[in-house]
Amino acid sequence: MITFTRDPITLNDVANLAEAPFLIEGQGSGQVKIYFESEANLREYLATETHGGVQSAGLKQIFDEMADNPNTGSIN
Predict the structure, then answer these.
(1) How many CB atoms are closer than 10 A to CB 30?
(2) What pTM value is reported for the model?
(3) CA distances to 14, 36, 42, 63, 73 from 60, in Å
């Protein structure tokens, strides 16, 4: 299991792991334990929409737009 002690919402290190809320995602050796500074941050994390993965049309569009943007350089 991989353990993250930095709250993904605030990017602060979580100080009191014994009392901090956490979430376990994944299965087997791919499990990830994520600690949060507060229950509110945990709820915000759970409410965050995720993309559909690398086959996502929306994600492909973002990559294509960034590849054509002169400010980002080439990613191709």
Answers:
(1) 9
(2) 0.65
(3) 34, 31, 28, 5, 17
Average pLDDT over residues 10-16: 94
Q: Kind and range of the H or E element at 35?
A: strand 32-35
Q: Any idea which residue has 């949060």 for tokens?
A: 36
Answer whether residue 6 shows pLDDT above 90: yes
pLDDT of residue 51: 63
CA distance 69 to 75: 10
Amino acid at 56: S
Q: Are 14 and 4 in contact (CB under 8 A)?
A: no
Query: How many Cα atoms occupy the beta-carbon half-sphere of 44 within 13 Å?
Result: 10
**Dihedral (C-alpha) 46, 33, 52, 48: value to the nearest 10 degrees?**
20
- DSSP code for 12: P
